From TrEMBL:
Entry coiled-coil feature ranges: 120-168
Primary location class: cytoplasm
Single Gene Ontology BP annotation: microtubule-based movement
Domain annotation Dynein heavy chain AAA lid: ranges: 874-1013
Annotated Dynein heavy chain ATP-binding dynein motor region domain residues: 264-485
Domain Dynein heavy chain C-terminal, residue spans: 1019-1318
Protein name: Dynein axonemal heavy chain 1
Family to which the UniProt record says this protein belongs: Belongs to the dynein heavy chain family.
Stored Pfam families: AAA_9, AAA_lid_11, Dynein_C, Dynein_heavy, MT
Location of the Dynein heavy chain coiled coil stalk domain: 4-234
Domain Dynein heavy chain region D6 P-loop: 729-842
Length: 1322
C-alpha cells in the first residue's frame, strides 16, 4: 500500500515511536523540506506478522523512556488516534492502537506504583529476617514437643500393658470357670462315650455275624411266622457258633438295623406294636426288592397309607381302569405307590417295575413301562399288599418281590386288644403309657441331638475349646437335660411297672378276644361268604367293653366283659351264618376257650373230629346190638391214653353201654363203672361219638350249654331294624341267600316302616346292568335314598366296580340317609373287602313242613280259596299240594334216602301248580288227576329232576297227594293221623290254626321213611358239623419228634403190597373168546396197579418232603393235610374207585380188594364174586352177559338178568353156576332182607345198613320183568348214590338194578329210599 489512510499511518508511526525505530526523511509538501516518514520502516516491521506480534508481547513496558512518552503524547491526545476511529479504517490497526494507548497508560500507572514496590521489597526483607528468627524458635519448640510425645508414648505403653494384664487375668479367671464346666460337662459324657466307644468297638468286631443274620432275615424269612423266624434264627446262630462267626450275644433284626425313633413313628402311623410287625417294617425298609405284604387283616395297608400319606401316596388296584397311568405318574414324579389286593398272579406289564429294570439314556434314568419309555425318579417306592390269607406264589414270582407275612399273630393281636381294653377301662394308665413311650423317644432324640451338637462343636472348634462359650452352653444344657432325662427315666420305669402291673390284670380279656377273633377269621374256610374284618371285630369288642356291666372289683369286671363280649360276638356272627353252621360256631368258641385253659387234650380233640385208627383188633363183644362201625370206633378210641382199656373193659359193662345205646337221650345217660367219674364232659362226647353218633348234636348242645350257657344254642333272630341301626352310609347291608329265598318283600315292608318306600330304587344285576346300577348309586348317595342291588352273584364281572364304588364312599360327602342293600348267593366272585366290612344276614327258607305250610297259607286269601267253581275239592287238593311241596323240600335233609340229588324246589314251582290246579278244576267236569300228576310230577317239579330214580320217587310221593282219597274229610296222610285232611268249610284262619297245631319237627312217617331215617339224618348232620370244624383246624405235631403224618405214612407203607405183575396175569389168563372174565380180571389188575403206583410214589415223596429232602409241592401239602385229617388224599381219589371211607378203613378196604384179586389170580375164577371189590363192576356184569351170549349164540342186546336171592351163605358156595354168577358184599339201606321169609322187610330200630344175602344173576334172553311182588332195587357204589350223569341217563355211582321179592307195593319201598350199596362209609 503506497498511500495508506491517515489512521493507519498514525498507528504505524505510533508503533515505530514506541519501538524506537527511526523515521525515514522524505521530501515534504513544501519543496526542499524533509519530513519524517515512518511508513517505510513501519512496513518493514509488518513483513513478519508473527515476529511483530511476539515483539509486542515481549515489549519492556516497565522501562519506557520518557522521550518516547513525550513523543507519543500527541498521538494519544489526537482525536483520530482513538480505537473507535481507527476501527472504521482497519480492524488490525484498531488492536495496535489499543496496544499503544495501553502502553502509554501503563507507563503512568507504573510510575505511581514504583515507590510502593520499593517499600514492599524493604518490608519483605524485614519479614524474611523475622521469619528466620521464628523458624529457629519453632525448631526449639518442636524439640521440646518431641520429648513430651516420647514420654506420652511410654505412658500409653504402660497403660496398655496394665490393661492387657488385667484382661489376661479376667480371661484366665473365665477360662478357669469354663474349663471347670467343660471338664464337669464332659465328665458325664465321658462315661457315656466311653461306654458307647466300648459298645461300638464290640459291635464293630461282631458286625459280620449280626449283619449276616439280618441279611438272612431280609432275604429269606419275610414269608414266615414269628415262631418259625425265631427257630430259623436260632439255627443260624448255632451255625455261627460252630463256624466261629463273630456276633453279639443276642443278635436280632430289630436291634441290628432298627432305629427306635423310626419304629416309634411307624407305630404312630398304625404299625402294630408286636415284634413280628416291627420286624416286617424293618424288612420292608432294607429290602432291595419291593415288598409284597400278605395282609389278610389289612393292617399293613393302613400303616402304609398313614406313613406315606404326606408323600402323596398313589393307591391303585389291578382292577382300576387307569392303574398303569397312575403307576406311571408315581414313577415319573417319585411318589410312593401302593398296589392293593393283588392275587396270586400279577399283570406282566408290572415286570419292569418289580425287577427295577432301569437304564441310562442321555444322562436320564429311564424305565420301559408297557410300550412307553418314562423317566424313573430315584425317590419312587412301591408297596404291594394281598388280602389272600395263604397265597401260593410261584418261585419265579417270589424272586421278584420280598414276601412279608403280615398275617395277624395271636400275640400281636393280644397286645393290641390289651391296649384297647386298658385304654377304655383305665384311660389315665394308657394315656400315661403312651406319653411315656412318646416322651422316652423324644428324650432319646433330644439326647442324641445334643450329643451330635457337642461332637460337632468339639470337632469344628479352632483354637482353645475352653474359649468356645457356645460349646460350654450346649454342654451345660446337655448336663441339665441328661439329669432331667435320668430322673424321668427312673420315674418312667416306676410308672411303667405300675402300668404293666395294672395292664396284666386285663390280660384275660385280651386273651379271650384274641381266641374269638381267630375263631371268626377262620370261618371263611367253611363258607366264602363268612368274611369278617379286624376293624369290624374291634368295633364289636369296644362296644362290648362299653356296654358290659360295671363291677366293684377288676376280676368281676373282667368276667362281665368276657361274658358280654363273647355273646355279643356270637349274636353278631350268627346273624350272618347259615343255620347248619350256628351250633358249629358255638362249639368252636367253646372248644377254643377250653383249649386255651388246657381243658382239652389235642389228641382227643382230633379223634372227635376225624375218628381214629384201631391198632389192635378185638372181637365185637355185642354183635346183636353193637354195629361193626361203633366197635371199630371204640377200638380206635382205645388207642388214646385216657381210654387205653376201654375196649378191654367193654364186655364187663355191656349192660351199661347197651342202656346208653338204647336210650332216647344217650347224651344224658351216665357212663358205666368208673368211666363216668374218670372222664370229663368233653371226653364223654368221644364215647357218645362211638356209640350214638346220631345224638352227638344234642351232646354238643348240652356241652356248649354247660360251658358257655343256654343262650349260645338258642336261635338268634335277625331283625332288619337291628341290623339297620348298626349300619351307616358307608357300610353295605348284605343278604346272603339260600336257593329259593328272596328277601325283597321283607325289605320293601321295612322300607315302608322307615318311610323310605318312595326313596328306594332296586335293580336285579346281570349282563349290562352295571352302568345303570352305578348311576343309580351315585344318585342315591347325593339324595340320601336307598339302593337295592339284587343277585350280585349274577354279575361277577361288575363286582370289582362295586368294590371300588363302596371303597370310595366318603361318609363326610355322602348323605347320611344313604344305604346300600345287596343280595347274593354264596359266590367266590363277591368282593371280600365288601363282605368283611358289611353287615351280613343269611336268608334261608323255612325248615320243616309246618313252617312251609304256614308260609304258603299266610300268602293266600279267603277270596282266592273261594274263587274256584269246586271250592271244597280245591281246598282239599290245595292242602294236599302244599303238603307235597313241603315233603319234596324236606326230603332233601335225609340225604340220599330222600333224593339222590338235593333239588332246589322253589315257591315258584308251588305257585304254578296252584294256578294249574285251580284252572283244571274250573275247566274240567271231573277232576283230571292224570293231568294234575303229569303237570306237577313231570313238568313243574319233575322238570328239575335229573335222576330217573329220583323221578320215580317223586311220582310215587305225588301219588299219595293227588288222588280221590284226599277229598274225604277224614283222610289221613300219615299213620299217626297228625297230618290229615280238615273240614273244607274252614277259612284261612281255620287252616292256619290247624297248621299251628302241627309238630315243629317232622316225623319220618309223613315222608314214607322208616324211623331210622332220622338217625341217618342226625348222623350226617353231626359228621357234617365235625367236617366243618376240621376245615378250621391248624396242623400240629406229635410228641415223639416225628410228625403225625410221618407216623401215618409209615403205617400205610408197611401194609401196601407191590403192584401186580400184569404180564404174568395176562399169561395165566389170556384174552379168550369163551371167557370174558379173563379180560375183566386184566382190566381190574391194570386199574389197581395205577392206583398202587400213585400211592407208593406219593408216599415216598411225602416222606422226603416232610424231611425237607424235596420241595413240599401244593399237591403234597394237600396230601399231608388229608393224612393228618384221616381223609383219603385227592391224588389217590383221582386214580381210585368211588369210596366214602375214612383213610384207615379205606386202606383196609383196598387190601381186601387186592386180596380178592390175588385169590382170583392164584385159585382161578371164584365161585362167587365180591361185587364191591371191583374197580368197575359194570364191566364184570357185561362180561357175565357176554359169556352167556357167546355160549348160547344169542345177541347180547336181547339178554337181561333174572335174579335169585340165595338162602346159602358165601362160604357154602363152592362151585361156579352153569349160567350167570353169584354176587355178594352188598348192603341194604332203608330195609333189611329176611332170609327165612325170602323177602324184603322193615329195618330193625337203629340198624341203618344190613348185609344182603348172596344174589344169583341169571342171564335170560327177551326176559319180561314180573308185574308185581317185587321191588326194583338200584345198586349204588357208595352211600351218596349221586354221581355225574352218564350217557345212559344213570349216575356214574349206579351199577344195576335188581328185583327183590316183597309183600309190600313198590311205592312203599321207593318212598323208604331203599337201595343196595356196594361199600359203606366206615
Amino acid at each position: 500500500m503506497q498511500r495508506p489512510p491517515q489512521g493507519v499511518k498514525l498507528v504505524i508511526e505510533a508503533v515505530c515511536i514506541m519501538k524506537g525505530i527511526k523515521p525515514k526523511k522524505v521530501p515534504g509538501e513544501k519543496p526542499g523540506t524533509k519530513v519524517d516518514d515512518y511508513w517505510e520502516p513501519g512496513k518493514g516491521l509488518l513483513q513478519d506478522p508473527g515476529k511483530f506480534l511476539e515483539s509486542l508481547f515481549k515489549y519492556d513496558k516497565d522501562n519506557i523512556p520518557e522521550n518516547v512518552i513525550s513523543l507519543i503524547q500527541p498521538y494519544i491526545d489526537n482525536e483520530e488516534f482513538q480505537p473507535a476511529s481507527i476501527a472504521k479504517i482497519s480492524k488490525a490497526c484498531t488492536s495496535i492502537c489499543q496496544w499503544v494507548r495501553a502502553m502509554h497508560a501503563y507507563n503512568f500507572v507504573a510510575k505511581a506504583v514504583e515507590p510502593k514496590r520499593i517499600a514492599l521489597q524493604a518490608a519483605q526483607e524485614d519479614l524474611a529476617e523475622t521469619q528466620r528468627n521464628l523458624d529457629k524458635a519453632k525448631e526449639k519448640l518442636a524439640g521440646v514437643e518431641a520429648g513430651i510425645a516420647t514420654l506420652q508414648a511410654k505412658y500409653q505403653d504402660c497403660l496398655a500393658k496394665k490393661d492387657e494384664l488385667d484382661n489376661k487375668y479376667q480371661l484366665c479367671e473365665a477360662r478357669l470357670v469354663r474349663a471347670d464346666k467343660l471338664i464337669g460337662g464332659l465328665a458325664d459324657e465321658k462315661v457315656r462315650w466311653k461306654e458307647t466307644v466300648q459298645h461300638l468297638d464290640y459291635m464293630i468286631s461282631n458286625v459280620a455275624g449280626d449283619m449276616l443274620l439280618s441279611a438272612g432275615y431280609i432275604a429269606y424269612l419275610g414269608p414266615f411266622t414269628g415262631e418259625y423266624r425265631a427257630a430259623m434264627a436260632k439255627e443260624l446262630l448255632k451255625g455261627f457258633k460252630e463256624l466261629g462267626v463273630p456276633h453279639t450275644d443276642e443278635p436280632n433284626l430289630v436291634s441290628t438295623l432298627g432305629d427306635p425313633v423310626n419304629i416309634r413313628s411307624w407305630q404312630i402311623a398304625g404299625l402294630p406294636k408286636d415284634n413280628l410287625s416291627v420286624e416286617n417294617g424293618v424288612i420292608s425298609q432294607y429290602s432291595l426288592r419291593w415288598a409284597l405284604f400278605i395282609d389278610p387283616q389289612g393292617q399293613a395297608n393302613t400303616w402304609i397309607k398313614n406313613m406315606e400319606r404326606d408323600s402323596g401316596l398313589e393307591v391303585v388296584k389291578l382292577s382300576d381302569r387307569d392303574f398303569l397311568r397312575r403307576l406311571e405318574n408315581a414313577i415319573r414324579f417319585g411318589k410312593p405307590c401302593l398296589l392293593e389286593n393283588v392275587g396270586e398272579e400279577l399283570d406282566p406289564a408290572l415286570e419292569p417295575v418289580l425287577l427295577q429294570q432301569t437304564f441310562k439314556q442321555q444322562g436320564h434314568t429311564l424305565m420301559k413301562l408297557g410300550d412307553s419309555l418314562i423317566d424313573y425318579h430315584e425317590s419312587f417306592k412301591m408297596y404291594l399288599t394281598t388280602k389272600l390269607p395263604n397265597p401260593h406264589y410261584s418261585p419265579e414270582f417270589s424272586a421278584k418281590v420280598t414276601l412279608i407275612n403280615f398275617t395277624l399273630s395271636p400275640s400281636g393281636l393280644q397286645d393290641q386288644l390289651l391296649g384297647m381294653v386298658v385304654a377304655k377301662e383305665q384311660q389315665d394308665l394308657e394315656v400315661a403309657k403312651n406319653q411315656l413311650i412318646t416322651s422316652n423317644a423324644k428324650m432319646k432324640q433330644e439326647l442324641k441331638e445334643i450329643e451330635d451338637e457337642i461332637l460337632f462343636r468339639l470337632s469344628s472348634t479352632e483354637g482353645n475349646p475352653v474359649d468356645n462359650e457356645e460349646l460350654i452352653r450346649v454342654l451345660e444344657a446337655s448336663k441339665i437335660k441328661a439329669g432331667e432325662i435320668k430322673a424321668k427315666v427312673k420315674a418312667a420305669e416306676k410308672t411303667e411297672q405300675d402300668i404293666d402291673a395294672a395292664r396284666l390284670e386285663y390280660v384275660p380279656v385280651a386273651v379271650r378276644a384274641q381266641i374269638l377273633f381267630f375263631c371268626v377269621s377262620d370261618l371263611s374256610n367253611v363258607d366264602l361268604m363268612y368274611q369278617y374284618s379286624l376293624e369290624w371285630f374291634l368295633g364289636i369288642f369296644l362296644s362290648g367293653i362299653a356296654n358290659s356291666r360295671s363291677a366293684d372289683t377288676v376280676e368281676e369286671r373282667i368276667w362281665n366283659i368276657n361274658e358280654y363280649f363273647t355273646f355279643s360276638l356270637y349274636g353278631n356272627i350268627c346273624r350272618s351264618l347259615f343255620e347248619k353252621h350256628k351250633l358249629m360256631f358255638a362249639f368252636l368258641l367253646c372248644a377254643r376257650i377250653m383249649m386255651n385253659d388246657n381243658k382239652i387234650d389235642m389228641v382227643e380233640w382230633r379223634y372227635l373230629l376225624s375218628g381214629g385208627m384201631p391198632v389192635q383188633q378185638l372181637a365185637n363183644p355185642a354183635v346183636s346190638w353193637l354195629s361193626e362201625r361203633a366197635w371199630q370206633d371204640i377200638l380206635g378210641l382205645s388207642t388214646l391214653e385216657s381210654f387205653s382199656n376201654l375196649a378191654q373193659s367193654f364186655p364187663e359193662h355191656l349192660e351199661g353201654f347197651k342202656k346208653i345205646f338204647d336210650s332216647s337221650q344217650p347224651h344224658r345217660e351216665p357212663l358205666p363203672g368208673a368211666w363216668d367219674v374218670m372222664l370229663d364232659s368233653f371226653q364223654k362226647l368221644l364215647v357218645l361219638r362211638c356209640l350214638r353218633a346220631d345224638c352227638l348234636i344234642q351232646g354238643l348242645q348240652d356241652f356248649v350249654t354247660a360251658e358257655l350257657g343256654q343262650r349260645f344254642i338258642e336261635p338268634q333272630t335277625s331283625d332288619l331294624s337291628v341290623v339297620f341301626t348298626e349300619s351307616s352310609s358307608s357300610t353295605p347291608l348284605i343278604f346272603v341267600l339260600s336257593p329259593g329265598t328272596d328277601p325283597a318283600a321283607d325289605l320293601y315292608k321295612f322300607a315302608d316302616v322307615m318311610q323310605f318306600s318312595k326313596k328306594m330304587s332296586a335293580i336285579s344285576l346281570g349282563q349290562g346292568q352295571g352302568p345303570w346300577a352305578e348311576s343309580m348309586m351315585h344318585d342315591a348317595m347325593e339324595r340320601g335314598h336307598w339302593v337295592f342291588f339284587q343277585n350280585c352273584h349274577l354279575a361277577p364281572s361288575w363286582m370289582p366296580t362295586l368294590e371300588r364304588l363302596i371303597e370310595n364312599i366318603n361318609p363326610l360327602k355322602v348323605h347320611e340317609n344313604f344305604r346300600l342293600w345287596l343280595t347274593s348267593l354264596p359266590s367266590n366272585k363277591f368282593p371280600v373287602s365288601v363282605l368283611q366290612n358289611g353287615s351280613k344276614m343269611t336268608i334261608e327258607p323255612p325248615r320243616g313242613i309246618k313252617a312251609n305250610l304256614q308260609k304258603t297259607y299266610m300268602r293266600l286269601t279267603n277270596d282266592f280259596l273261594s274263587s274256584s267253581t269246586k271250592v271244597s275239592d280245591f281246598k282239599s287238593l290245595l292242602l294236599s299240594l302244599c303238603l307235597f311241596h313241603g315233603i319234596a323240600l324236606e326230603r332233601r335233609k335225609f340225604g340220599p334216602l330222600g333224593f339222590n340229588i338235593p333239588y332246589e324246589f322253589t315257591d315258584g314251582d308251588l305257585n304254578i301248580c296252584i294256578s294249574q290246579l285251580k284252572m283244571f278244576l274250573d275247566e274240567y267236569q271231573d277232576i283230571p288227576y292224570k293231568v294234575l300228576k303229569y303237570t306237577a310230577g313231570e313238568i313243574n317239579y319233575g322238570g328239575r329232576v335229573t335222576d330217573d330214580w329220583d323221578r320215580r320217587c317223586l311220582l310215587s310221593v305225588l301219588e299219595d297227594f293227588y288222588c280221590p282219597a284226599v277229598l274225604s274229610s277224614d283222610h289221613v296222610y300219615s299213620a299217626s293221623g297228625v297230618y290229615r285232611q280238615i273240614d273244607t268249610k274252614l277259612d284261612i284262619k281255620g287252616y292256619l290254626a290247624y297248621i299251628r297245631g302241627l309238630p315243629i319237627n317232622d316225623t319220618p312217617e309223613i315222608f314214607g321213611l322208616h324211623d331210622n331215617a332220622n338217625i341217618s339224618f342226625a348222623q350226617n348232620e353231626a359228621f357234617a358239623l365235625l367236617e366243618a370244624v376240621v376245615r378250621l383246624q391248624p396242623r400240629a405235631t406229635s410228641a415223639g419228634g416225628k410228625t403225625l403224618e410221618e407216623e401215618i405214612v409209615a403205617g400205610i407203607v408197611e401194609k401196601i403190597p407191590p403192584p401186580f405183575d400184569v404180564e404174568e396175569v395176562m399169561e395165566k389168563y389170556p384174552v379168550l373168546y369163551e371167557e370174558s372174565m379173563n379180560t375183566v380180571l386184566i382190566q381190574e389188575v391194570i386199574r389197581y396197579n395205577k392206583l398202587l403206583e400213585v400211592i407208593c410214589l406219593s408216599l415216598r415223596d411225602i416222606v422226603k418232603a416232610l424231611k425237607g429232602s424235596v420241595v413240599m409241592s401244593s399237591a403234597l401239602e394237600l396230601m399231608a393235610r388229608s393224612l393228618f385229617n384221616n381223609v383219603v388224599p385227592d391224588m389217590w381219589k383221582a386214580k381210585a374207585y368211588p369210596s366214602l371211607k375214612p383213610l384207615a378203613s379205606w386202606v383196609s378196604d383196598l387190601l381186601q380188594r387186592i386180596n380178592f384179586l390175588q385169590r382170583w389170580i392164584s385159585n382161578g375164577i371164584p365161585p362167587a364174586f365180591w361185587i364191591s371189590g371191583f374197580f368197575f363192576p359194570q364191566a364184570f356184569l357185561t362180561g357175565t352177559l357176554q359169556n352167556y351170549a357167546r355160549r348160547s349164540g344169542t345177541s347180547i342186546d336181547t339178554i337181561g338178568f333174572d335174579f335169585e336171592v340165595l338162602v346159602k351163605s358165601v362160604s357154602e358156595i363152592t362151585e361156579i353156576p352153569d349160567t350167570g354168577c353169584y354176587i355178594y358184599g352188598l348192603f341194604l339201606e332203608g330195609a333189611r332182607w329176611d332170609n327165612k321169609a325170602g323177602q324184603l322187610t322193615e329195618s330193625r330200630p337203629k340198624e341203618l345198613y344190613t348185609q344182603m344175602a348172596v344174589i344169583r344173576l341169571i342171564p335170560k334172553p327177551n326176559r319180561k320183568p314180573p308185574a308185581s311182588g317185587i321191588f326194583v332195587c338200584p345198586i349204588y357204589k357208595t352211600l351218596t348214590r349221586a354221581g355225574t350223569l352218564s350217557t345212559t341217563g344213570h349216575s356214574t355211582n349206579y351199577v344195576i338194578s335188581v328185583e327183590l321179592p316183597t309183600r309190600h307195593t313198590q311205592r312203599h319201598w321207593i318212598k323208604r329210599g331203599v337201595a343196595l350199596i356196594c361199600a359203606l362209609d366206615y
